[in-house]
Automatic annotation (TrEMBL):
[4Fe-4S] cluster binds at residues 58, 62, 65. Involved in the heme biosynthesis. Catalyzes the anaerobic oxidative decarboxylation of propionate groups of rings A and B of coproporphyrinogen III to yield the vinyl groups in protoporphyrinogen IX. PANTHER family: COPROPORPHYRINIGEN III OXIDASE, OXYGEN-INDEPENDENT COPROPORPHYRINOGEN III OXIDASE. It comes from Helicobacter valdiviensis. Belongs to the anaerobic coproporphyrinogen-III oxidase family. The keyword S-adenosyl-L-methionine applies. InterPro entries: Aldolase_TIM, Coprogen_oxidase_HemN, Coproporphyrinogen-III_oxidase, Elp3/MiaA/NifB-like_rSAM, HemN_C, rSAM, rSAM_sf. Binds 1 [4Fe-4S] cluster. The cluster is coordinated with 3 cysteines and an exchangeable S-adenosyl-L-methionine. Pfam families: HemN_C (PF06969), Radical_SAM (PF04055). Keywords: 4Fe-4S, Cytoplasm, Iron, Iron-sulfur, Metal-binding, Oxidoreductase, Porphyrin biosynthesis, S-adenosyl-L-methionine. This is Coproporphyrinogen-III oxidase.
Length: 456
């Protein structure tokens, strides 16, 4: 990065804001959007499918974790969950055209590898029976906690067609690991990666988090250097979303040990510089990939999309959320499953999908969603493209948002050209701030900091 960045100044831009894995954000999902409306939307969407399966169980709590997790070590919980998944899939088969092509499947958690090899095989078989038309080029991925990953599980995933794995690394610093209650040394991770590589997995992602207790530029450099020795194909380096008012386990983290926004900006800038020197390119807000990675190629094809898993190479799909708490996304809706096991099971026992709430997108939502997702994915905006797609005059429609962006433009976070907006290298570090003026729902939260995590 050539520019000298004034970290002190930009650290003051840190404010509460969405991560825009959806627009409208999940906080806008509501029960006015009812089951009947959802079924109609689910059925009329003609796009090919992307499947997300949530496997919620974890053996112990990582204090930083913002995911929807159930802590347990009991095997009977898995058996019961499996039996409900089976019923959910058969209801889906009754309610929608499950013969559409499947472009993507993702197992997320929780810890998918809480399920043993035989159980994973059963789940994969059930999915393939329900959705028989997987594309030959489907991306089939699973989140792996390296502390719980065996050769047998790898074999089950491989024989089920899995071709990408994402490993939760977080940080290698022992002091940080102690503070977040997640212990995994380099050798343990190295062994897990070896298993994956031995089974011919060519796409390996590492999840890291910056902003965790006791991290500073030096400690994070060391973590990154260690990671590089294992040569992952992608990195997802998340900004720690600290929301202790929502996630109780985060209250175990001593806030005085968290790095200051200025330090976090330095870490982020270092990540970008170090990874680009080592053959990775930044993609969207928090991802990095090698130039031959599909994620990177999808930018050139204009297919990169932001979604609940971060970024995806497949635009134009209908996402079906399966399992507790999962979120589905169609061309004009979002739909979320029940978050607690009792309600999830109750719906299924009634022969209904475990739908809990959602939102049907208005035309204004669709316009703003397109704008925000383009900014979050490509760091630029072509006004004409939006004007042609939605038959609007961009500068009139977004007069207020463009005015709100002026101060950010004046300090060099973005440029306004005749045709659109272009985010600068420094602006990339603050992309959430740049997207926020286009969000029509945010105004009501302006004085309420206890909704979203901080942008830095
Ligand atoms: C759904 S979790 C599952 C990962 C898997 N269970 C593991 O721990 O290895 C996926 C990733 O989300 C990230 N994550 C979880 N909580 C977060 C938070 N509060 N802020 C930022 N990233 C978070 C972590 O990097 C984690 O690896
Ligand atoms: S980070 Fe992974 S293993 Fe840790 S609690 Fe969250 S989902 Fe479970």
């Amino acid at each position: 990065m050539q520019q000298q960045i004034d970290f002190k100044k930009f650290a003051t831009y840190s404010k509460a804001g969405p991560r825009y894995t959806s627009y409208p954000t999940a906080i806008e999902f509501n029960t006015d959007y009812d089951y009947k409306s959802y079924l109609l939307d689910l059925q009329k969407d003609t796009n090919p499918l992307s499947l997300y399966l949530h496997l919620p169980f974890c053996r112990s709590a990582c204090y930083f974790c913002g995911c929807n997790v159930i802590y347990t070590s009991k095997a009977e919980n898995k058996t019961r969950y499996l039996s409900y998944l089976k019923k959910e899939l058969s209801i889906l088969k009754e309610q929608m055209d499950t013969s559409k092509d499947v472009y993507q499947l993702h197992f997320g958690g929780g810890t998918p590898t809480f399920f043993d090899a035989d159980e994973l095989k059963i789940i994969i078989e059930l999915l393939r029976q329900t959705f028989p038309n997987f594309s030959d080029e489907a991306e089939i991925s699973c989140e792996i906690d390296p502390r719980f990953f065996t050769k047998e599980q790898m074999e089950a995933l491989k024989s089920g067609g899995f071709n990408r794995l994402s490993f939760g690394i977080q940080d290698f610093n022992p002091q940080t690991q102690k503070a977040i209650h997640r212990f995994q040394d380099f050798t343990l991770v190295q062994k897990a990666i070896e298993i994956a590589r031995n089974y011919g997995i060519h796409s390996i992602n590492f999840d890291l988090i910056y902003g965790l207790p006791y991290q500073n530029l030096q400690t994070f450099k060391e973590t990154l250097h260690l990671c590089l020795k294992l040569n992952p194909d992608r990195f997802a380096i998340f900004n720690y979303a600290h929301v202790p008012w929502i996630k109780k386990t985060m209250r175990k983290i001593d806030e005085t040990t968290l790095p200051h926004p200025e330090e976090k900006l330095k870490i982020l800038e270092y990540n970008i510089e170090f990874l680009s020197q080592n053959g990775y390119k930044m993609i969207g807000m928090d991802h990095f990939a090698k130039p031959d990675d599909e994620l990177f190629k999808s930018i050139a094809k204009n297919e990169l999309r932001r979604n609940f898993q971060g970024y995806s190479t497949k635009g134009g799909t209908q996402t079906i959320g399966i399992g507790i708490t999962s979120i589905g996304e169609g061309s004009n809706y979002y739909a979320q499953n029940h978050k607690d096991l009792a309600s999830y099971e109750e719906s299924i026992d009634k022969g209904q999908l475990p739908f809990c709430k959602g939102i049907q997108l208005s035309l204004d939502d669709k316009i703003r969603k397109t704008v925000i997702m383009k900014l979050m994915s490509n760091f630029k905006l072509d006004f004409k493209q939006i004007e042609e797609e939605f038959k609007i005059d961009f500068t009139t429609y977004f007069k207020e948002a463009l005015e709100e962006l002026e101060p950010l433009r004046e300090v060099g976070l973005l440029e306004k050209t005749n045709d659109g907006l272009e985010v600068s290298q420094t602006g990339m570090l603050l992309i959430r701030n740049i997207a926020m003026p286009f969000d029509a729902y945010l105004k009501k939260f302006s004085n309420d900091k206890k909704v979203f995590s901080k942008t830095i």
